[in-house]
Write a structure and sequence with these properties.
It is globular and about 45 Å long. Helix 1 packs antiparallel against helix 2 and helix 2 packs across helix 3. The longest helix has 21 residues. 23% of the residues lie in helices and 15% in strands. The chain is of the alpha/beta class and 194 residues long. The chain has 4 helices and 8 strands; from the N terminus they run E-E-E-H-H-H-E-E-E-E-E-H. Strand 6 and strand 7 form a beta hairpin.
Length: 194
């Protein structure tokens, strides 16, 4: 029996959780799933330029664990780019430090402490006052109460944890969720943002 994964610290959720090659219909695509901890390691090491030791400290893991996370993420991204697969960011073993919100009206992005539970009907965009905004942590599959026994509010369901609806309510081509593959319920489903 393997040892359970230690939760990794993720500063905030990604701005988008789904990327796909242009010009290929969604139902024709296969996808690669990048966990939120893999996303965070790539953000810290490749985007912000921290060495693996610093990134490991920020994620609350050892340097060798950080190196394995970065290597795994690089392989998945290379597979998606080489084989024209979509990339979905979801799941993993993580704790979020803060949340991000994105206003659909003025495109303003702001951060808030997770302890400050923002409800769409109670909060307005600080820039334009709109009620039309996306909760990026929930979009990435995070929920305030652990699901499936995951620590710290992360999905706790490994690679395939979290919800399947992406930006704008579209469902990704996950197993059984795509139309035209001979699997699933046939109708595409999504959630409305307001």
């Amino acid at each position: 029996m393997s040892k359970p994964k230690k939760s990794r610290t993720v500063k905030y959720p990604p701005m988008a959780v789904y990327f796909k090659p242009q010009g290929i219909p969604l139902f024709h695509l296969q996808q690669v799933t990048l966990s939120l901890d893999e996303y965070e390691a790539i953000r810290l090491v490749d985007y912000e330029g921290h060495d693996q030791e610093e990134a490991a400290g920020m994620m609350a893991v050892s340097r060798p664990t950080c190196a394995r996370i970065v290597e795994s993420a690089h392989k998945k991204i290379a597979e998606a780019l080489t084989l024209a697969k979509a990339i979905r960011i979801e799941g993993g073993s993580y704790n979020l430090s803060a949340n991000r919100y994105y206003c659909s009206e003025c495109r303003h992005t702001w951060e808030a402490n997770l302890g400050t539970a923002l409800m769409q009907n109670e909060t307005l965009c600080p820039q334009c006052g709109s009620k039309e905004f996306l909760d990026l942590a929930r979009q990435a599959g995070w929920s305030p109460a652990p699901q499936g026994g995951g620590p710290g509010g992360g999905p706790g369901r490994g690679r395939r944890g979290g919800r399947r609806d992406g930006p704008g309510g579209d469902r990704g081509p996950g197993k059984g969720g795509a139309q035209g593959r001979g699997r699933g319920g046939g109708k595409r489903q999504g959630r409305s943002q307001g």
